[in-house]
């Protein structure tokens, strides 16, 4: 994505209309045309009272169902130009890593996150019958032509692929996921500005009409690529959600296992005294 003219810091780059934005609510609203009780069915799957209680992972799965339906529609989909631009393969994120790769991370928390995510996706597909919901969604639309493409769009592999794409691309505003064409295509590059926080929501604004406006988080010359800083977070979230780890991230913090740390008793007396006199000691 390149700038066709010079762009100043905090200048509005584009505004995505609500009609082009997909959320868990919009997917459910459209699905009610063929499955009137779909909201109740999903509430049972995710053990929630309403869509407003869906977790981030729940929203990923619902959005994935929506993209699987659009995939099956092919050129008949109103999102066809967008679907053509999406990755053809799944994003290699945390829960896509092999057991060997996860062991190399030497992080029990990330390992647990990966395993739990893998288990939850498969349980939702098989045990909670999301696979049947996908079939009902697709069969309920007369525009769908049943062929090999439809079969590939409605498989477990397709479900996992779209979940990884949504996790990587959807923006989170106030605890809700928004899949925004164009706005989700800016690559990451840190601003390397440690003097002040630059939260993602400062440059991505949900407007009253449901549209989302995006402001530039740095000065960009004409012809330069437009990058975004995804927020002041460490690399673990990038790996978990986006499927990559930045080369440069001033907000990264490493988790060091306790077995690699010296015991308090082994510290020099000066360090012991400094710690005991600090605000962290009680």
Explain this structure.
With 282 residues, the protein is mainly α. The chain has two domains: 1-20 and 180-255, SET domain (Beta-clip-like, Beta Complex), CATH 2.170.270.10; 22-175, no CATH class. The chain has helices at 24-31, 38-46, 56-73, 80-85, 99-105, 108-126, 130-139, 148-153, 156-169, 200-203, 235-242, 269-276; strands spanning 12-16, 171-173, 176-178, 187-188, 204-206, 212-215, 227-228. The strands form three sheets. A three-stranded antiparallel β-sheet has the order 1-6-5. Strands 2-3 form a two-stranded antiparallel sheet. β2 (171-173) and β3 form a beta hairpin. α1 crosses α3, α3 packs parallel to α7 (130-139) and α3 packs across α9. The longest helix has 19 residues, at 108-126. It is globular and about 75 Å long. The termini are far apart. The model has no long low-confidence stretch (mean pLDDT 88).
